[in-house]
Amino acid sequence: MEKDMVKVFKGLGHPIRLKIVKKLGKERLCVCELQKDVEFSQSNLSQHLKIMRDSGILTAEKEGLKVMYQIKDENLLKVIHTVKEILDLRYLEEAKQS
Questions:
Q1: Dihedrals phi, psi of 21, to nearest 5 degrees
Q2: In what residue span(s) does the HTH arsR-type domain sit (predicted)?
């Protein structure tokens, strides 16, 4: 189980992948939709999507000519939210100490 947990955290361990998860937290999207408003190439995006599929973070389903991506388990968004809360508290405490 620990090996699988590490795999998930590694799958999230890049700013681009975290950005992808946040976008997919709202809706299912295809590569062309995920690429909007981002500063990386489609081939780079595809590599990140593969890593995330391989780590069990995303699922991919073909719809016509498009492949639609979505988060495999919504609980992942709760984990990301919890980490954000931890960091918000840390930054708040650091600001008070300054």
A1: -60, -40
A2: 1-91
Annotate 34-89 with DSSP letters as a single string: HTTT-SS-HHHHHHHHHHHHHTTSEEEEEETTEEEEEES-THHHHHHHHHHHHHHH
Where in the chain are the domains? 2-72
Residues 6+ apart with CB under 8 A from 15: none
CA 1 to chain CA mean position, Å: 21
What pLDDT is attached to residue 53? 95
Q: What is the pLDDT of residue 76?
A: 92
Classify domain 2-72 at the CATH class level: mainly alpha
